[in-house]
Amino acid sequence: MSTPEFRNVVRLNKQPSIRSTVTRALRAAVISGELQPGRVYSAPSLGEQFGVSATPIREAMLDLAREGLVVTIPNRGFQITEVSERDLREVTELRLMLEPPAVERATPLIPPSALPELRRKAADIVAGAQSGDLVEYLAADSDFHLALLHYAGNARLVELVAGLRSQTRLFGLAGLHEQGRLVASAHEHDLMLDAIEAGDAAGARDLVHRHIEHVLTDWSGEAPAPDAADESVGT
Prior knowledge:
- This protein is mainly α and about 240 residues long.
- It is built from eleven helices and three strands.
- α1 packs across α6, α6 packs antiparallel against α7 (about 155-165) and α10 packs antiparallel against α11.
- The model is unreliable at about 5-15 and about 225-235 (pLDDT under 50).
- This is GntR family transcriptional regulator.
């Protein structure tokens, strides 16, 4: 896999903190596989790619180390941790237990005034898919899903799901983009919002459930199960 190129990372985040911006983009790069499992990266080399100094890179990597995404290698840098197939299945199982019912609960609580911003977040996902910028795609995708869960009214749930999402590895994203399928996947978020806008809580729940299931097939880079091969893909 070639060395990842982080294009205009700072624009990915509306937050004022450079550290949070870099952390967000690094996290997405790890999940997408653009930062390779087992490989050691130095803060100065990543800083050159980000266009920032090594300091925010080190700070961001320490944040990711606390999440278990990287480990510190003294005098060398940071090594990306690996996630086994079993780990991925267990994480996905937990997400299926938590996210679909939470979105069902949140649906009647999402005010109409919130929909334009949610639509904008969904559009950001599509933009990332169209450009093939996997870091931007995943960062926008995380923003969207966590924003939906926020309306369920349980801050601990949002924090837990954010942690679970960080533990996934979605190495199939690049292949989906090359096949022209990533944009179709991105538009699944619009379908979720259509169901939410229509007040169809059960429909929104089912869409999220199917979306997450594909972490184990197309998104993870594993071969899809025979009964899922013709379904849509999601994260």
